[in-house]
Design brief:
Layout: E1 18-21, E2 24-27, E3 31-32, E4 36-43, E5 47-50, E6 56-58, H1 61-65
Antiparallel strand pairs: 1-2, 3-4, 4-5, 5-6
Length: 66
């Protein structure tokens, strides 16, 4: 039998998700309303999406300019 290739997983980059200020950790991105507080929405150029359930919020051009 042929050997299976090992898939190397990248470690989660927690420092990109949270911001530490005055001794407390604050979340940078919004959390998903369907999945709960532990799942974050990924910030794209024109939308925010959940990688777990596929929930999507589009950013209007008016909000983008602010």
């Amino acid at each position: 039998m042929a050997k299976k290739k090992e898939i190397k997983k990248k470690p989660m980059q927690v420092w990109k998700i949270y911001k530490a200020s005055s001794g407390k950790a604050e979340r940078k991105n919004k959390s998903c309303p369907k999945c709960g507080a532990g799942v974050f929405l990924a910030a794209h150029k024109d939308r925010e999406t959940c990688g777990k359930c596929g929930y999507c919020e589009f950013i209007s051009k008016k909000e983008e300019k602010k």
